[in-house]
Amino acid sequence: MAFNVSQLVGHGSNMTLITLQGFQGVGKYRYVYFFMLLFAYIFIMLSDLVVLYLISSQSSLHHQPMFIFIAALLLNSTVGSSTILPKLLMDILSVTEPTISPSMCISQAFFIYFIGASGFTLLSVMAYDRYVSICRPLQYHTLITMTTVRGMLGGAWLAPACLIGGATLLTSRVPLCKLNMNRLYCNIYSLAKQGCGDILISNIYGMLSTTLCVLLPSLFVFYSYGRILAVCMQSSKVFMGKALQTCLPHLLVFINYFITTSFEIFSSRMDANPHSMAPNMMSLLIILIPTICNPIIYGFKMKDILRQVQTVALMH
To answer: Which residues cross the membrane (predicted)?
Structure first.
């Protein structure tokens, strides 16, 4: 459902843009932050695209469910980075306080939350794939078919899209009374706090969405790895070594997501000093750290991908 921007920003033509006040602490370090973020963005895009290309171009990889899920997760981080970093780079160099229209703010908030939520659902799907592979190996090819993989990927993206879409719609229906947001980018909770209407329903729905998109997938990952650990403890050291080799990258990525997302959930509910860049930079790092680490962990920990990287390097 489309929303009326004029209703969001109230009456009067001078109330059409939201000011992002999180840049007030940039000061003389403007170009340092810019080049750091530019380097991070280039690294994320190149490294993600390299691993995605290797997986998609090698028949030995793109027919394996594990690598299909890895590609989906890296595609997620690529889209997420492109949602926020290009505008952020332009805003850092702005000589005036950056602004954003309510409609663009709503769109950015939706994509950021959707990418974060679908990261957890994808990680839970990957945990199930590893659980079946290690705990029920004889049934793996029966349970994890390409039809099942497509269904799991569709569900991993569709469920967060519906839940976050609902939260975004509820937030968009609250008229804005404050147009100064102490953030570097828009998120749903911060946008809701700019409203002058009743946001109780939005808060309740937000907690429900967080539970379904973050807590439940996390509990499933913990359960899956608990079962995997139990099987490993009863098996040989060789079996345990192979299991850890395939599970460790996924577990590292999940722990990374869980810690950074938990920090973001709590920090977004605290009012930061608008003249301090530190809280907002920490919030930005929460987004950057997983997206930077993902291709490193999967690109240099997974032997099959590393072997393909070495082959391509030798060819050139």
So the answer is: 31-55, 67-89, 109-128, 149-170, 204-226, 247-266, 278-300
Where do runs of H (alpha helix) occur along 173-277?
188-193, 200-210, 216-233, 237-267
159: nearest Cα among 121, 215, 113:
121
The full DSSP string for 269-313 is: TSPPPTT-SHHHHHHHHHHHHHHHHHHHHHHHH-HHHHHHHHHHH
- Name the residue type at position 235: S
Distance CA 72, CA 56 (A): 11
Q: CA 271: distance to chain centroid?
A: 23
For the segment 106-148, what is each residue's pLDDT rounded down to a tens digit?
998 899 889 989 999 999 999 999 999 998 988 999 999 999 9
> Residue 182's pLDDT band (boundaries 50, 70, 90)?
confident
Quick one: tokens of 299? Answer: 């690109």
Calculate what percentage of the chain has a pLDDT beyond 70: 83
| Cα separation, 107 vs 35, whole angstroms | 26
Region at 195 (left for phi over 0; alpha for psi -120 to 50; beta for the rest): beta
> What is the rounded CA–CA span in Å between residue 148 and residue 139?
13
Residue 225 near residue 214 (C-beta atoms within 8 A): no
- Give me 203's structure tokens: 């808060």
Residue type, 90: M
Rounded Cα gap, residues 254 and 53, in angstroms: 23
Q: Are 204 and 129 in contact (CB under 8 A)?
A: no
What is the b/e burial string over 72-96, where b = at least 16 CB atoms within 10 angstroms of the residue's CB? Answer: bbbebbbebbebbbebbeebbeeee
Confirm if 160 and 217 have CB atoms less than 8 A apart: no
pTM (global) more than 0.70 = yes
